[in-house]
Amino acid sequence: MSIDWFVIQNYYGQIAHLYDNTRPLPPEVSAKICNCILKLVKATPETKFLEPGIGTGRIGFPIIKQGYDYTGIDISEAMMNQLRGKFSEMPENLTLIQGDAANLPFADNSFDAILTTHILHCIDDPLVGLTEIKRVLKPNGVYLSCEHLHCSYQEEFFQAFNKIIAKYRETSQHKKEKISPFGEEMQQKLVEMGAEVEKVTAARWQQSQTVGELFNMYRSRAFGVCWLIEEDEFNQAIQEFKNWCDNTYKSEGIILTDELIFNITVARNWN
Ligand SMILES: C[S@@+](CC[C@H](N)C(=O)[O-])C[C@H]1O[C@@H](n2cnc3c(N)ncnc32)[C@H](O)[C@@H]1O
Question: Using CA positions, which residue lies closest to atom 9 of ligand 1?
């Protein structure tokens, strides 16, 4: 097996109920992203979608609501249960499977459109994930690699927290974070693998949060970075992080506002 199922399932099992708050999508932004995806894949009533690492269905939900044939695969039932809970009745056009994106349980050339958001870095070898996507995508199919980027204040919090936990991580026995070989290089990887690639901005919107709200997300260990150290170390780190917040912003009530961006790397004619 290519992944540590227990570590990932355990992690997502603990944060599934908080997950959507870590990357909120206001309904109008979600609708805009949905329309952009449907246009990019030239969706028809026959279009069959696949989303490896579907999680809570943050991206797929409005597409499913429109009745498209949608299959999601994820190793965390807890994450998919959040998606199930968004419907009063399970839609007939939605299939959810617990499984591994590095070993997709589908025949070659099965889907017209495949999308992923923040999942390939979870796979031991993300290239295996991409190769699987290419295998199950129909020859004229479209692959969309989506990215919901951090804004500047989120990045500032993330960097400050990372700096604090660095000293604990030097000695920690905890599983080391994997560095994604993709990120900026996704476009190049897809070209090397034979795809025609285009980068599209699907949505830009303003987001506001108070310092206290963002700090509390860290305190409740909602982000992956909070699980890179043991619990005792985390309790010390979060106190240091509280001091950093107080020194930097003076009040938990300060409102932080910035623009968020949702980008899609589109791969077509992949052969
Ligand atoms: C960061 S979350 C992203 C969820 C969703 N795509 C989104 O953007 O809201 C990563 C998701 O990938 C799932 N995951 C991680 N490794 C996986 C694997 N090898 N196969 C399938 N799902 C996996 C996790 O359980 C989690 O639901």
Answer: 58
